[in-house]
Amino acid sequence: MIKNINCAYVPVSNAEKAAEWYERVLGMQLRSPVEPGRGAIMIMGEGGWLFLLPSPAMTPLTFETTGWAEDGESFEMFPLCFETEDIQSLYASLKEAGTWTETDIRDEGSCGLQLGFKDPDGNKYQVWQKPSL
After folding, report:
1. Distance from C-alpha of 64 to C-alpha of 77, rounded to nearest angstrom
2. Which long-range contacts (CB under 8 A, 24 or more apart) does 97-106 make?
3. Stretch 95-112: mean pLDDT, rounded?
4. Higher model confidence: residue 104 or residue 36?
């Protein structure tokens, strides 16, 4: 019955600065001017919305799990995974911005190319590119 995720809500310490970063580094589009205290709406390439909401306590989107690492060790998990058609360019943009990323893009074979990164507030994400056919 559920078709897809239309939008997601992300905590940020400063919505205006975060919106600038998401636009400049990730290529998202700001929907309308940032309203003080209200946050920002970013639009992704295929129309999904990402709401950047001010969070006074600023607890980043991330959690620990033992269900991801092969050795059963604790892993800092990303709650959102984005899709891209050009992971190499995105990786270069993240590195140029001084963003924390995993050491390199991983080739996961039939699962495509993958890369973990964090925004300036420590929200952890993964980006994925479909495998070549």
Report:
1. 6
2. 97/21, 97/24, 97/25, 99/25
3. 93
4. 104
